[in-house]
Amino acid sequence: xxxxxxxxxxxxxxxxxxxxxNTCQHCNHPPKAYRCPNCDWINVLDGDRDLSHPAxxxxxxxxxxxxxxxxxxxxxxxxxxxxLLAKKREIELxxxxxxxxxxxxxxxxxxxxxxxxxxxxWYLRLAAxxxxxxxxxxxxxxxxxxxxxxxxxxxxxxxxxxxNVRLDMRGGTxxxxxxxxxx
Length: 183
Description:
alpha+beta; 4 helices; rod-shaped
């Protein structure tokens, strides 16, 4: 057991030669007392009853390993990559949700093809899906106005039809079809 001398306060490591029952390897003083590491009671080792310089158990101090310096640029790069990866995951989830929606629609109406995005039928189905959500309905109306900017009268007809479908909501019946303008 390693011990620290009560006179010179140095550690004795060669305990097989210099035990606390013998002498210190540095100052050659024999310890007169020993402090118990468990209860802090001082035990007298000789008849002198000198408690002034008790030997104590030496505790090996383990120094913590130095931490590498922090690279701020690498941290920012990692944070950017993590954000980019999160965005990619979000986009992929939205793609999967869209594919799931299309598959569900195909299972409900297997004989009907999905209308082209931006077509009148597509807007009517969108209005049926929107239902009572006025914010989404207003966003859809703005898209219609943008797509029918060259023919605003036709755009307003589509919006009116969408509003009728949205308000009607006939329990699963397909929305009424508008007559397409042939040019």
